[in-house]
Specification:
- The chain has helices at residues 11-16, 21-26, 36-57, 63-73, 76-86, 88-91, 96-100, 107-125, 127-137, 142-145, 151-163, 202-217, and strands at 168-175, 182-189, 192-199.
- 59% of the residues lie in helices and 11% in strands.
- The chain has 218 residues and is mainly α.
- Strand 2 and strand 3 form a beta hairpin.
- Strands 1-2-3 form a 3-stranded antiparallel beta sheet.
- The termini are far apart.
Amino acid sequence: MRKLKISFKKKKLFVKVFIHRSYLNEHPNEGLASNERLEFLGDAVLEFLTSKFLYQKFPQFAEGKLTSLRSKLVCERSLAKIGRKLGLGQRLLMSRGEEKSGGREKPALLANTFEALLGAIYLDQGLTTAKKFLKAHLFPTLKEVKKYRDYKSDFQKIAQEKFEITPTYKILKETGPDHAKTFIVGVYLKKKPWGRGEGKSKQEGEQKAAKKALESNV
């Protein structure tokens, strides 16, 4: 990919970045694996490098402020926007059903593919190149993502200050086929429900549930 300005040594690793699990359902005999393991690894690399970047950039910030900034920088919305700019969705291999449901533009899929790509970069070329990738594409968006409101973080802060309780989230219902699920999520303080949200991903549902809790009860 020209936009990446990275030449992979292991070409098969690069191909795996773009294999969505729905593709395997329609091509079971191709001996392929999805990008989910790379996504798992990329998520860890992303958290570490972003934490280090913020720690060094803002020596005056306390832990809570750094955590809030990190959550905004690596949130689904932020990663999906970068994934869209890089054209990651257009390269994804997915099922016909997933594609028909708009899978190439789904924020969750774009964010997950971004993490899978980062994991592959780390495996192929190490932490230094992974850091350069984030410096080129993610870290410059810091000013922009500061404007995002992280409803989960805001509700957690208020809940801990007022009640000394950390909110918990529970998926109340899942509807739709695997390639186009909708999640209804509830947020609770202990066992008491405080809000409910619906989204195309668990993260979106959680954010909307926290937003509802803030609007209705705080």
